[in-house]
């Protein structure tokens, strides 16, 4: 008796493949997530690099705050978010970056990968507000109030040491 003659159930390799539509949707989601992540990392990195290169008398740590806005955020909601962020005593910002600016940054990041750019062309990129705060430690206390403002989709906080060492992502409750 050969292995083909057994009544064993089909292996996962022989089960029905996912439909082309499911694969396309999954691929688009992955490309969009990768593009947004790259843009966020580049934006945060640029803010931290700028602050590190321009300030000679820095405190111990720099924190790049990125607030991703809802796609349908209103001008009043955006203004309220910016006003809240100004209360954090930023070193740089807050600076609004519209989806056009984000798309331009993504084009720079993926300039050597035209296939990714083509796939991401019809995917909406969120607008964001970015800023840098200098402080020996990061205070998470104002984050929940910011998170609750209308128009805020998500908040990311990245820290870097004065010497340029990376602390990484900061999670606030």
Counting DSSP E segments of at least 2 residues, the number of strands comes to 5
Helices and strands, in N-to-C order? HEHEHHEHEE
CATH class: Alpha Beta
- Average pLDDT metric: 78
Tell me the major beta sheet: 5 strands, antiparallel
Share of helix among residues? 40-55%
Supply Rg.
Answer: 22 Å
CATH architecture: 2-Layer Sandwich
List unreliable stretches of 5+ residues: 1-6, 8-15
CATH superfamily: Histidine kinase CheA-like, P2 response regulator-binding domain
Strand content: 15-25%
SSE topology sketch:
Blueprint: H1 20-54, E1 61-69, H2 75-86, E2 92-97, H3 99-109, H4 114-120, E3 128-135, H5 143-147, E4 152-161, E5 166-170
Antiparallel strand pairs: 1-3, 1-4, 2-3, 4-5
Question: Explain this structure to me?
Answer:
The chain is of the alpha+beta class and about 170 residues long. It has one domain (about 20-170): Alpha-Beta Plaits (2-Layer Sandwich), CATH 3.30.70. The chain contains five helices and five strands. It has helices at about 20-55, 75-85, 100-110, 115-120, 145; strands spanning about 60-70, 90-95, 130-135, 150-160, 165-170. The chain has a five-stranded antiparallel sheet with strand order 2-3-1-4-5, sandwiched between helices. α1 (about 20-55) crosses α3. The model is unreliable at about 1-5 and about 10-15 (pLDDT under 50).
């Amino acid at each position: 008796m050969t292995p083909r003659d057994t009544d064993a159930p089909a292996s996962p390799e022989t089960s029905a493949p996912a439909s082309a539509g499911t694969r396309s949707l999954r691929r688009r989601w992955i490309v969009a997530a990768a593009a947004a992540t790259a843009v966020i990392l580049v934006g945060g990195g640029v803010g931290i690099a700028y602050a590190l290169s321009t300030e000679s008398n820095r405190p111990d740590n720099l924190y790049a705050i990125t607030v991703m806005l809802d796609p349908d955020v209103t001008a009043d909601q955006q203004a309220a978010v910016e006003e809240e962020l100004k209360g954090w005593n930023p070193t740089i910002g807050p600076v609004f970056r519209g989806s056009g600016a984000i798309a331009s940054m993504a084009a720079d990041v993926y300039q050597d990968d035209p296939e990714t750019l083509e796939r991401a062309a019809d995917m909406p990129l969120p607008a964001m507000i970015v800023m840098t705060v200098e402080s020996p430690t990061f205070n998470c206390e104002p984050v929940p109030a910011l998170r609750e403002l209308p128009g805020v989709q998500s908040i990311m906080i990245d820290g870097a040491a004065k010497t340029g060492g990376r602390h990484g992502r900061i999670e606030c409750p």
